[in-house]
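Hey, can you fold this?
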Amino acid sequence: MPRFLRSLFGQVVLALVVGIVLGLAAPGFAVKLKPLGGAFISLISMIIPVLVFCVVVHGIAGAGDLKRVGRVGVKALVYFEVVTSIALMLGLALAFIVQPGVGMNVDIKTLDASAMSSYAANADKLASGGTVDFLLKLIPTSVVDAFAKGDVLQVLLFAILFGCALTMVGERGRRVAGLIDDLSTLLFRIMGIIIKLAPLGVLGAIAFTVGKYGIGSLKQLGMLVVLYYAAVLIFVFVILGGIMRLAGFSIVKLLKYLREELTIVFATTSSDSVLPQIMAKLRRMGIRDSTVGLVIPTGYSFNLDAFSIYITLAAVFIAQATNTPVSMTDLLTILAVSLVTSKGAHGVPGSAIVVLAATLHSIPAIPAIGLVLVLSVDWFMGIARALGNLIGNCVATVVVASWEGDVDRTRAHAVLDGKWTADEEDAVEPAMPVAAH
């Protein structure tokens, strides 16, 4: 067997090609393969809550300095807000420069409102809740409920409290910390087994998509989708690339290092499907456990860069397509509301449409029924959303770690250059904290 096909990346690429061929040649059969993709994501989701808990608790207990952990958290949140704001403004700017919706002249009376019925309740709930409601939802009704629902932010909150308490009890907490470390090692082993099934998951997901929608549908997506993909590329290589360069690293090398995970996300349109592996790879780079454990799970809800671009771009597109004039006040409202609503996107069914509807709910000038236009191409935009969000969170982790001195730069550069000589098990086993002030 060629060396390329012996690697996970090669197997995933092969599965991607086979899935497309099956979708074209036997669409009826290809659609029936959907459970393969769903089962793979479910297997990954199964261990995410416990894995996040173990990584965060082990990281905080290993750090021993609660002030440093708090400092990392604050810097991460500041970074999230700044970069998210840039993403929102990029979406607005490109929408006004390119004007993808101008000339469509859509009569809102001709749009089918029933297509939005399944999203309406969630949108109204999200829009009416506001910041206070979102913050209250971070507190689980019980610890068991947080793990049962797989709510990463609720699990993260409990893990931070647990890790801090473990640090405070000192020597008496050593046995518990050791147990959690052992459990973390076991979970990463399980993840290593599950990730070998990624080619099957990719095959099922891409075969279903091509079989149902047809490869030709890619030609009919229009200027909005093309512009959105261009916007995400600009954001990744210009904005995030510049940020990475300031931190002393290369965005291109990071993308090459994460190519297997990015390929899986491309096929499944779900960044959840690679969360454990992403955390393992960042730790393998030499980034401290506690930093990875805090930034990545939090970023999944607070740092949705590509999602932010989508919200503002789609909102202006709908206004242009329906010939709705948008004032400067409306634009500022979109920015302000999006900063809040985008934080509740992760884990909401049909999150993209739901959050966009919640955003438009606060801007009566733009007809919410125009969402039907976006709904028809949402899945294809979801590919770029998932990829952009994942890349944004990986960059955030590297940057915050650089600020705090929580990354072994020699090891990180060696890994990104492909010169790290550790065996494959190092990619899935928890790394010990390597940085020191």
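Oh, and this one too while you're at it.
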Amino acid sequence: MPESSTDGPDPKPDAGSANPDGGVGALWSDPSLSSLGSLRQLVRGKAHTVPPSISVRETLLKLDADRIDAIVVVDEASRVALGIVTLRDVLRRIAIEAGELDAPIAGVMTGAPISVLADATVHQASVLMVRRGVGHLVLTEADGSYFGVVSQADLAALPGARAAALVAAILAASDMKTLISLAGDIRSFARQMLAERVGADALCQRLSALNDLLTLQVIELTVSRFELPYVQWCWLVFGSEGRLEQTLATDQDNGLVFAAESEGEAIRLRADFLPFACAVNEALDACGFPLCKGNIMASNPQWCLSLDEWKAAFGNWMATREPVSLLNSSIFFDFRLLYGQESLAGELREWLLSRSPSYPSFLRALVENTMNWEPPLNWWQGFRYDGNKAHPHTIDLKMHGSRPFVDAARIYALAHGVPHTNTAERMRMAAPSLGIPAHELAALLDAFHHIQRLRFENQVKSGAKQAPNRVNPDRLHELDRLILKESLKQARNLQQRLARDFAVS
């Protein structure tokens, strides 16, 4: 029985591990589907399955009758996907390998198909398919039962799916000079999407996805130059990159986690990993992702830690209300696996979510802290300015616009055990527990995405260098100005809800 899928291009050696829980970016999200929450919503009609005992002939007839190119072999009792069969697989194995048409399909299928949760994002699926070199993904429910299947064609059929050439070029890059050039192409592609009025959610996810792939290539090229310790490890990303909300003005926020048996071993392993981490950070800087001014990078010994050390760091932050703990929570609590051993990041995520509800005073402190960043509206609903001398009559759309949404979503995620890191996904997952009706949730997310879009547009105009997040409302189109005002009202409404939920006056 074949052990790997043959329905896509030859798979690239997968030194990294895809992460169904943390996710990587949506390369093909359509602006009209910017509110698409999961792969589940892409599946239309009935699930096409066959039992393992059915013959190859009957399977071919079913593929033809249903006009599909792939079907999943499912155990009838457990509803677990045992394998996948594509028309290409069957034709090759019957016509070329002289297989028997009356033989059970179990002997022809590709066993152990690559699968993700049905509630995973388009973002995840697109990168996972590219990284594993497959054309189909099996979707499962949380209990492992089969839900459906999505193909590269499903994703590519979404309007605006034109990043394929750029993705192929990134995956084929074999040197840093090429990757540096491609990093510029990614930013140009983002500007093109912005000019074509692609939605902010889709734009952020596509940009994050392409940046993910580029960073993965940077790490793989760098790994080949070092003899790293033979232990489990992974590369984490934080902040906007962890939330899949990168804009054109973004620096590096990353860290490294490794497995260690003792404190002494952790010290030795850290010394071995730091030169590698430094090389990755420098390479990313050359690609246009500036070194973090706050030194929140894997090359900093503070953020190159064993799993136990990371748990201790998160535990210390939650046990105190110190300003530095609140600041760190706005960066590190949005961590996401990018490369390496998925189980390490998964264990850290489960550990954090299992404990965070037990620190109500910390969550309350987070709420109090985010209230310091109130939306820039005065009492008569006009814009309020912060008196910045270098940029007078402007509003900081990051600090006073998108931040209230980001902070609230993070707090609710920690309080309700939501594993997602993306702001919109956190709000969607937490909304039922919070009693937020669908129309109110839609208004909140539309407001957040409008502010994000204005940030993108301003960064393109300013070259993402001078005050990339500051806008003068008087220079906005009248409609954008009106929508911005309504969006800021939504931010204030969300803060008021947050204050009520955590009894903060």
